[in-house]
Structures are given as C-alpha cells and as structure tokens.
C-alpha cells in the first residue's frame, strides 16, 4: 500500500467550500498500488519515492529556462501546478533534470525525399532520412513520415537505368531499423507512415499490414478534399506522381498532364475509399488524415505545409517539427462530484493552464535535441501542445453521460476555457520574452486559420503583445501517466474503457519470476464507491467506450475540435461484432464534421496470430511432418505454421437462459436395439442473421429414451457447443466426422422428410445425419459466413506419423459398474512458442478395448477440438463432460493429481472420468490447470458477460490483438491512442 503522503498527492484537491457533515470526501480516497508501481517503473529516478520528489525535479529543471533571479519563484509555481493537476508528457517526467541525453520531446516528423542519399528541394535522401530517424528514436522520440515523394513501384530511375521498388518497400527498411533501435532502450519505437490518397501505390499501402507486415508502424492515408468530393460524386480519381513511369506503365496508359505530373492510372474514388474502410474495419488500419483541413486550419499556413503527423496523430507537423506535450487532469477541478451541485472550477483550471503553458515553452529551451534541424524548427515556431486528460471521468463526476448533448456542451466549454487561457498566457510570455521568430500578426490572425477565429479580445491582445508559441493546444493519449499521476483517470478525450481490470506484471528472476497482480480501477468509479459505498447503484452517467456507438465517439471529437489548434488523438473503439454497415461511413462523417483525422479499432480475427505475428493467416495448414528429437528414439510430431488468433466465436457462449422456454424439433431414431427421441433446440436468430422474415437457429441437441446407446448423450452434449458457434463450416466439419463412425453392424433407418430409408454404419452416423438434415432446413450450414473456429485450427486433418512412429500418452480405464476395460490414448504434437521453444499438446484421441462404441463419435469430435489453437476451447468441452451422469454407471476410481495425492472418489460415468483424465494430461503438459482452465488466454473463447451487482465492475474481456511484450499473449489492442493488453493490463509507453 502506498504511503499516506502519496495517497494525498494522487487524490483530488478537495473543494474548500465543501461541507463536512461527516461524509467521506475525495481527499480521503486512498491511492492505488498500481500508481506507485508505474511511477517507480517508468518515471522515478534515483532515490525518488513520491510524486512530490519527482515533481520537484521536473519543476526545477524547467525553471532553469527562467532568469536566475526568478528561478526559485517559478520552480515553486511549476511544482504547485503539477500538484493541482498538470502532468507534463512522459519524456519530460522521465528525463527532465537528469543526466540523460534523452530528448524531452515525445515525437517528431521527419522529411523523406525520393533519392537514395542526395537531398532534393530541402528533402533528405531516403537513407539520410533513415539515419536521422534512427538518431531521433535512439534519443527517445517517435517519428512520423510522409513517404509520398518516393516514386511508385515500377517508375523509371534514369540515373541507374532501372525501375523503382516503391515507398512500401522502403517503409520495410524503416520498420526494421525501428525494431533494431528499439532494442537498445526501454521505450518501444513508434512510427507513423503516411501516403497520399493520389499516390499510385496507395492500394499497396492500404493493404501493407494485412498479413502482419510493418508492425512498427501506424499508417494513415493522407486524404484531400478533392478526393472526398469524388467519393461523394462517385467520380474517378487520378493516381499521380512527378516521377516518370516505366515503359510498361506507359504502355498501359500512363500519361503526363499539363502540370507536369504523370497520371499512372485512374480508378473509382469509391472503390479506393471502400478499400480504406474495409481494411480499417478488418485490420484497424489505415487511419485517415484530412490534409486540406489540416493545412487550411494551420496557424502557420503562410510559411509551412503539413503532410504528416506524429505517431499518435494529435500533432500535424511540418518537416522536423516536434510535439512538446502536457495534459491537465480535469477530474481535479470537479467540485461536489456526483452531487446535485456538481460543477467544474473554471477559475482554478484557467490558473493551471497559464502556468502549464509557460512550463511547456521552457521545455523547448532546456531539452537536448537529437538533430540541429529539429532545434532550429522549434526555435522558429515554438510549438507546444497543452491538452487535458480525464474528460470521460469528469463528465461522469458531473453526472453527464458521454454520449449526451449536455456532455458535449460541457466538453466544448472546458476546451474553450483551455484555449483562451493558453493563448492569453502565451501572449503574456511574448510580452516578457519575445514572440516566436516567424510571427507576423497580419498573416497569423487572418486567412481562415484557427487563430483567425479567436475571440476578438484575444486577437487584439496578440496583435499588441505578440505570441510566444505558434500552436498551443493538443489532446494527446495519456496511458501510463494517467496510471501514475491521475489515479487511472480516463485517457485524454476518451470515455473509460472499463471500470476495473487486473494488471499482471512480470517479475524478474531476482524477484522470483512469475507475475504479480494489481487491481486497477477507474478513478471516477472507485471515487463513487468510496463516497457512496460498495453497493450503491451506479448513476446513468457511467458508460464505457464499448457501450457507445462509433458516431457517438466521433461526435465528441467534433464538439471539441473547434477549440484545438492542432489535433486530437482519438481512437474509436468498437466491439468485434460491430456491423460494417454501421461502421463504413464513419470517416466520411468525420470529414463532413470538419475533423482533421480519425483512427478506429475493432478487435477481430486478423489483428494478431496466436503465437507469432510473423505467421500468416492459414486457411489450409501445411501437412505435419514428424521431426526426430536429438536422442533418436523419442520422436514427436511438430507444427511450424500456426493460425491467427480469433475472438468471440460463440453466437451463444453458454446455454441461453430462457425462463419462458424455447421451441425444439424432435425425431424418433429407430435402430435395431430400440428407439429413442432426438431433440434439436432452436432459438430466433438476431441481427442480420434473422433475415427479412425471421429465422431460427439450432443451439443444442439431446437424446431421450431408455434404449438410447450408452455414450450418445455425451456426444450430443459436446456437439451442442459446436451448434452455438458462429461458424457453419466448423459445424459441417463436425457432422462430417460423425458420418462414418462404424459400429457392430450397419442398419437402415427412415430419414426425414419423407421417411425414405438409408443405410448407416451405426447409430452415431444415423443420429448425425438427422441433425444435419435439420440444420440444413434452418440454414445453419450455409457457406460464406465467418469461420473463426475453423481458422484457429493448427491442423485440419489428424497429424500422421511416419513408420518410425511418435510419442503418445496412454492410460487404462476400468469401470466395474458397466464391465468396461479399455485404454485411452492421446496422440501429441509439439508447437512453437514465442521464446523459440516448444509446447506439447494432444492432437487426437482414441479408445481400444471394451467400451461403448458411441464413444468413437465423441473421440472424433474432441480430436477436432484438440486441434483448435486456443486451449480454452478444449478446456470448455472437457469441463462440460465432467458432470455427465449415467444410471447405474457411477464407479469409484483414483483422482488424477499433479501433486501425487492418493485418493479416490465416485465418478458419475465413464465419460466423466475420461474427461477428467484428459484434463489431467493437459495439466501435466502445462496447458490447462487441473480444473480445465487455460493457463494462457488466447482470445477464441469469450465467456458470457457476468451479471454484476449494483455498483460492481464487470471484467475486462480479452480481445485479439498483437503480441504483448509483458505476458506474450496476442491480446494487445489499440485503446485511447495507446497500446493496451487485455490479458495482463500492460500499457504501452504513451503520454
């Protein structure tokens, strides 16, 4: 637990006018342990233990830019501003006042020319730009680039009489360089790659990350107003470049326009736009930058052109431009939170904004610069970016729901106050220290730019006193600084993503290895519970990001954007099942709302692979081949190519609750040993699956009757879970596997709908045929839909050995109650792990001896389940079988135990005991625990949302994504502009 001193420092400043009355106050809210942990891990230096010690270091370092006689005064004021809620960006907090040569600037934009090394028109050659970027990243800065000047693939290169390889090929070089530089420090390299919408290689660029390429880049398409107008008009657009096309391209129709540009080809604007939208829907990239909006709104329209942004896109910047950032925690200015008189302290907020502006201006004078050109650019324009964080929580504390007009109006007002305070403070600093060198009052305050729309009083002040900083406002992502300095207040402009989650932090070997868990709670949520009690029902204002529509997210940006002179980092997070029809016009709406850009994130099956991002999506995995281990005798099958992770595969994650009952279709199965009834439970489809006239879908099967074959009920139970997937091809594969299960003798049975007899090899095959017929009638086997489970298999067919054989695991089962004695055998395979090792997994099962032949059908089903990459899948199936009972079939047998315990218990059936033995083998291999739960979550199986008591926080769902550097799971998504792991809670270095 954190010290009392630190608890006070991380909590809200109490309102002096707040009545006591014995009621708990925000000031008594204790600190979260995670805050102290992140502070020490990411930002504290030397002997620093508390926030005040760190803040004092930063205040003293930034006050060094002041006149010597006033440094003590400004140091004290800078410290007080931090105590009241100002949080400088992460680079400032971690490096200011230290002996590190790291820059205090988070991000830069670097120019990239078209030649290999020779500068042209002020743009460095490609490899010169690469060197400059590497030096910038080595010093801790992220980098954005516009690659549009690089000539298209196939263009003619006269100097070498060859053809160009195109910008995407050079992006791969920058990508690998970033990866290499990243390994030299603790901060992950960050890059933004931009290509114009009219570049001939734009389609290759849009799809460059589809298969996991360019993993050290965010990418955005630079879009013009002319292009967007062509989209609306369904017109064609020209893809152009100044470089001469190659001979083949000219033969295909490339020609030179009157303005000297070469038109490589034309295509419908809507076709290109649809590619952008479908790619960002399926892969979360590219984002879009509205270049004309950015430049028309630019305060320095008269002396610069902007074509790119920093990696999180909150700062459109010119060549060598930088973002000097800081955020104010808005929650610190809410008085009487959640109360009837809840209000925002505008006067206090204005005071902190003014001091924060001066602090950021001073950063430009005290920071080390990676490159002289960056220093010169900053000196000429003195850009800074003051923003806020905690908006989502602040609205909750003011009893305003994020997606309401009242909330947007409050956000507008807060942004307006920040704008006016920052510009007024910058003008006052200019009167004292001088305006930025490129300031020209006549040009700056006219031309339709942001500054031209300032209130007249501010414009008059700026004209009279000048302005210290060309740009002043930016709303950035604040991932780790929010955790360390703002009690995990909601990030930037975003609503809270979840009310609580568990942060699993990897421990060093010195600390004993493994993971340490922290409970991480949203600030507004925990403050509410602190003030009103654990069981108090949450107010209507409590709404999380995934509960909002994409349009609601964009509407908040549109409300705030008119008051921000650069841009806003905003990731529109939508759930995996968000319909494309609702998503496809999101960027068009953003353009119509005069936004400068937008990014989205929807977790899906393509965003990451289960064990390696380098593994391509595999529909038909290569056949497995046995590999001989060193030693010769002990051989194992080995898989080298693995599938991608998938998410939320179940239409119904468990049997739906139906208090009023549900319809079921029934059929009498007639076989030589007696008849029994087969039932198929059905439910109405929802959403697009329902169709125009509605339809029902099967969700379970069961059998009933005294003469049903033993083991058939267990088969029906495991097949029911396959019916609940959103994967018709997977269900078909399961039914195909049952179609040839042979038993003692074949028999004929009448089939629906007309009663015509068919010959079947056994009752399992006959039952499966009836189930298939009913599924076909309901349209549950229609092809063309998603195949999430099928895509997650590491082998479609059972792995085959050579004549040399392979290792397997076998165990004997003896049920005296049913006079059964047989051997269960598990064939096993080795799969690669991220650390270069292997993990052994069962891949097929079988029985030999005296056992119910219906279990052969269950074995075929479970063998397919075993080859699904996510162990949570087979774990779910086996756990469901543990309670399968059988009249007169219960017996006593030893309990499998990793600890070597010797005890016995009553098992309800042979099937239940077999399931327990298989779980035990998975536990021996370190894949499941002894309860059948996966030791590593991979995202395929999502449990149903738990019902929570009033005021309780729901669990954060695991989502498919890129590999997490902390826990190794492929569950790292893009949230609030930052990397965030939904499995362990790791937050990337942003803010």
- Mind telling me the CATH class of the largest domain? Alpha Beta
Q: Return the CATH architecture of the largest domain.
A: Alpha-Beta Barrel
Strand order of the largest sheet: 14-2-3-6-7-11-22-21
Q: How far apart are the termini?
A: 25 Å
Percent range for helical residues?
A: 25-40%
β-sheet strand percentage: 15-25%
Return the average pLDDT rounded to an integer.
Answer: 86
Number of helices: 30
Low-confidence stretches: 1-22, 605-631, 942-947
Total strands: the figure is: 36
Approximate shape: globular
Annotated CATH topology of the largest domain: Anaerobic Ribonucleotide-triphosphate Reductase Large Chain
Organism: Roseateles violae
Biased composition (Polar residues): 1-13
Enzyme class: oxidoreductase
GO molecular function: ribonucleoside-diphosphate reductase activity, thioredoxin disulfide as acceptor
Q: What topology does this entry show?
A:
Elements: H1 4-10, H2 33-43, H3 51-63, H4 71-83, E1 86-88, H5 90-95, E2 107-109, H6 126-138, E3 142-146, E4 156-157, E5 162-163, H7 167-182, E6 191-196, H8 202-206, E7 218-223, H9 225-233, E8 236-241, H10 247-251, E9 255-256, E10 262-268, H11 269-283, E11 287-290, H12 291-296, E12 308-309, E13 316-317, E14 322-323, E15 325-329, E16 334-335, E17 343-344, H13 346-366, H14 372-381, E18 385-389, H15 391-397, H16 405-433, H17 441-444, H18 456-465, H19 479-485, E19 500-506, E20 515-521, H20 523-532, H21 550-560, E21 571-573, H22 580-583, H23 586-592, E22 597-601, E23 625-628, E24 635-638, E25 664-671, E26 674-684, E27 696-704, H24 712-723, H25 728-738, E28 747-751, E29 756-760, H26 763-777, H27 788-791, E30 808-815, E31 820-832, E32 838-850, H28 854-866, H29 871-881, E33 891-894, E34 904-907, H30 910-924, E35 972-975, E36 978-981
Parallel strand pairs: 2-3, 3-6, 6-7, 7-11, 15-18, 21-22, 24-31
Antiparallel strand pairs: 1-15, 2-14, 4-5, 8-10, 9-10, 11-22, 12-13, 16-17, 19-20, 23-24, 25-26, 26-27, 28-29, 30-31, 31-32, 33-34, 35-36
